[in-house]
C-alpha cells in the first residue's frame, strides 16, 4: 500500500568547493577528493502515485534535458523493483552539463520521492552509483567529503555561514572531455582541515585547495576565464572557483546581501549568463 499519494523533493545544485583529481582506476574512472556542498538553488520534483511511471519536464531549462527514458529521473525510478508507479513532474531550473550535478541531483530527488511514496527503502549506494558518480552524494545532500569515484562519503563538520553566487556562461562542457584534457591525474589529496573556528579560517584553508579540472575546462571553454574574472571582481567576493567539470563557477560571500548584490551586478553586465545567488545548505 502507498504511504501517501504525493511526494515532493528539492534537487539542489551540487557545488564542489574543491575538487582534487588524485588518480585513475583501471576502468578509466578518476579518483577524486572533493568538498561537496549543496546550494539553496535547484530543481523541484513532484511525484504522484499512478498506475504507470511517467515524466513531464517543465521550467526555464526544460529544453536542455531529455524527457524520455534517457532522463536520469526515469533511470532512477527504474531502480525500484517492483516498480513504484508515479506521475513525475520535474521543474528544471539548473543548466545541464554545467558542473552542478543537476541530473544526479534530480535522480537523487526521484529516489527520495519514490521511497517516500512507497515506504520502501532507497536503492543501495552501489545501484545509485550506476546512475552517476555524484548520485550518492546528492542523496546525502549535506556538506561532505567525497572520495573514490564518488562512493566514499564522509560528513563534513559544520561550515561557517557562507553564501554563494553560481554563474554559467551558457556553454555546456562534456565531463569526459575535461577528464581527457587533464594535465595530471595524480595530484595531492585535500589535506585535513584544521578545526575552522571562523569563516576567515575556513576560507583561508579553502583558498589553498584547488579544482584540478579548471585549467582543462578553461582550454575547452575559454568563457570560463571570463566568468571567474567577473565573479572575482564583485565586492565582498572571498573566492572564485569552478565547480565540477564546469562551466559553472561559484563565488563565496560572507553575507546574503553581498551575494545578492554580486548576482545582480553580474546579471546586469552579462544578461545572457545564468546567474543565481543562494545559501549553502547545512
Ligand atoms: O558519472 P557521471 O555520469 O557524472 O560521469 C560522466 C563521465 O565522466 C563518466 O562516464 C566518466 O567518463 C567520467 N568520470 C570519470 N571519473 C569520475 C566521474 C566521471 O572519469 N570520478
From TrEMBL:
Pathway: Isoprenoid biosynthesis; isopentenyl diphosphate biosynthesis via DXP pathway; isopentenyl diphosphate from 1-deoxy-D-xylulose 5-phosphate: step 3/6. It catalyses: 4-CDP-2-C-methyl-D-erythritol + ATP = 4-CDP-2-C-methyl-D-erythritol 2-phosphate + ADP + H(+). Residues 71-141 form the GHMP kinase N-terminal domain. It holds the Pfam family GHMP_kinases_N. GO terms for biological process: isopentenyl diphosphate biosynthetic process, methylerythritol 4-phosphate pathway; terpenoid biosynthetic process. Transmembrane segments: none annotated. One of its GO terms (molecular function) is 4-(cytidine 5'-diphospho)-2-C-methyl-D-erythritol kinase activity. ATP binds at residues 95-105. Keywords: ATP-binding, Isoprene biosynthesis, Kinase, Nucleotide-binding, Transferase. The active site is at residues 14, 134. The keyword Ligase does not apply. InterPro entries: GHMP_kinase_C_dom, GHMP_kinase_C_sf, GHMP_kinase_N_dom, IspE, Ribosomal_Su5_D2-typ_SF, Ribsml_uS5_D2-typ_fold_subgr. Belongs to the GHMP kinase family. IspE subfamily. NCBIfam families: ispE (TIGR00154), PRK14608.1 (NF011202). This is 4-diphosphocytidyl-2-C-methyl-D-erythritol kinase. It comes from Meridianimarinicoccus roseus.
Amino acid at each position: 500500500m502507498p504511504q501517501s499519494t504525493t511526494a515532493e523533493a528539492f534537487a539542489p545544485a551540487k557545488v564542489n568547493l574543491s575538487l582534487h583529481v588524485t588518480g585513475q582506476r583501471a576502468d578509466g574512472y578518476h579518483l577524486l577528493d572533493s568538498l561537496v556542498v549543496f546550494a539553496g538553488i535547484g530543481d523541484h520534483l513532484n511525484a504522484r502515485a499512478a498506475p504507470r511511471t511517467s515524466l513531464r519536464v517543465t521550467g526555464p531549462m526544460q529544453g536542455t534535458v531529455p524527457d524520455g527514458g534517457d532522463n536520469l529521473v526515469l533511470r532512477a525510478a527504474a531502480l525500484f523493483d517492483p516498480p513504484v508507479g508515479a506521475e513525475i513532474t520535474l521543474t528544471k531550473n539548473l543548466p545541464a552539463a554545467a558542473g552542478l550535478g543537476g541530473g544526479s541531483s534530480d535522480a537523487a530527488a526521484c529516489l527520495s520521492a519514490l521511497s517516500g511514496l512507497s515506504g520502501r527503502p532507497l536503492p543501495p549506494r552501489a545501484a545509485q552509483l550506476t546512475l552517476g558518480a555524484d548520485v550518492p552524494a546528492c542523496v546525502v545532500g549535506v556538506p561532505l567529503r567525497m572520495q573514490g569515484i564518488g562512493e566514499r562519503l564522509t560528513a563534513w563538520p559544520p561550515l561557517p555561514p557562507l553564501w554563494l553566487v553560481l554563474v554559467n556562461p551558457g556553454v555546456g562542457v562534456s565531463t569526459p572531455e575535461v577528464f581527457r584534457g587533464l594535465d595530471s591525474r595524480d595530484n595531492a589529496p585535500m589535506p585535513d582541515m584544521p578545526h575552522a573556528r571562523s569563516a576567515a579560517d575556513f576560507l583561508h584553508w579553502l583558498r589553498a585547495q584547488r579544482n584540478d579540472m579548471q585549467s582543462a575546462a578553461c582550454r575547452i571553454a575559454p568563457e570560463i576565464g571570463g566568468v571567474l574574472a567577473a565573479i572575482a571582481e564583485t565586492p565582498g567576493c572571498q573566492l572564485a572557483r569552478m565547480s565540477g567539470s564546469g562551466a559553472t563557477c561559484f563565488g563565496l560571500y560572507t553575507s546574503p546581501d553581498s551575494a545578492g548584490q554580486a548576482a545582480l551586478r553580474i546579471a546586469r553586465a552579462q544578461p545572457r549568463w545564468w546567474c543565481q545567488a543562494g545559501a549553502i545548505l547545512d
